[in-house]
Design a protein that fits this description.
Elements: H1 7-16, H2 22-26, H3 38-49, H4 63-75, H5 86-92, E1 115-116, H6 120-126, E2 132-137, E3 143-148, E4 155-159, H7 162-171, E5 177-187, E6 190-198, E7 215-218, H8 232-242
């Protein structure tokens, strides 16, 4: 049997451990009972849109949420433990798809949307710093929620939660990429033509979303911060988004 740890070393080791439940409170994988936050709310939303959950979207991982996760796991042939681990999350984010006019469980029926082409100053006024936006990737039908965290010539965004980071990564085929993609941006009941890239860069502000930086959202007339000039490929994708019929 080895020598016992010195008291001072044991104290340091204990200090290095996170407080009980910290990972759950901040919404890191795995998500389980008593977890709370934006990641849990997004799990609830996706489960609701997929028909597994009918409770409140309150961001609290309670008994109803756990039961919905169990039903989802059983349906997908996963180990049924009521915990959103990496495997469950990887299948869950595939259900984060636009369902013909339905982003929210409160939306009813199927509806076509009109994607508007509006200039950058108008778009910027609709989404001040800190605003939440829904981004519908028009090529895959997947959508994520992002929070604006600045940007002068275009919007700098971060995924609102680790669930949204997983959706963004899925959109880009499991990797980060500078590829420009057309998106419909839901803001205040309107759908606006935009273009994103999917590569984390710069500083990150949000904690617990597993995204090491921010990504960019361009509108018609947006410019690059580095040069002050429009990005031709972003502008082409914005035009493509405006021509989408959904």
């Amino acid at each position: 049997m080895g020598k016992p740890w010195p008291a001072w070393l044991l104290a340091l080791a204990l200090l290095a451990l996170p407080p009980p439940g910290l990972a759950a409170r901040e919404g890191r994988v795995p998500l389980h009972r008593e977890a709370r936050g934006e990641a849990v709310r997004r799990v609830q939303e996706i489960l609701c849109l997929s028909g597994f959950y009918s409770g409140p979207l309150d961001g609290i991982f309670g008994p109803q949420t756990e039961q919905a996760v169990r039903l989802f796991q059983k349906k997908k042939g996963l180990a049924v433990d009521g915990v959103v681990g990496a495997r469950t999350l990887s299948l869950l984010v595939r259900e984060a798809r636009w369902k013909g006019g339905r982003f929210l469980p409160s939306a009813r029926g199927r509806a076509r949307i009109r994607v508007e082409l509006i200039p950058w100053p108008e778009a910027e006024a609709l989404a001040p710093d800190g605003a939440l936006l829904r981004l519908l990737d028009l090529q895959t039908g997947l959508y994520l929620v992002a929070r604006r965290r600045g940007g002068h010539y275009h919007m700098d965004l971060e995924p609102a939660s680790l669930v949204d980071t997983a959706v963004l990564r899925l959109i880009y085929g499991g990797k980060w990429s500078w590829e420009r993609r057309p998106v419909a941006v839901e803001l205040r009941g309107r759908y606006l033509a935009g273009s994103i890239n999917g590569f984390p860069h710069g500083e990150d502000v949000l904690e617990g979303n597993d995204f090491p930086g921010h990504f960019c959202l361009h509108f018609w007339g947006s410019r690059l911060h580095r040069t002050g000039a429009p990005d031709p490929e972003h502008q082409r994708m914005v035009r493509r988004a405006a021509e989408w019929k959904g």
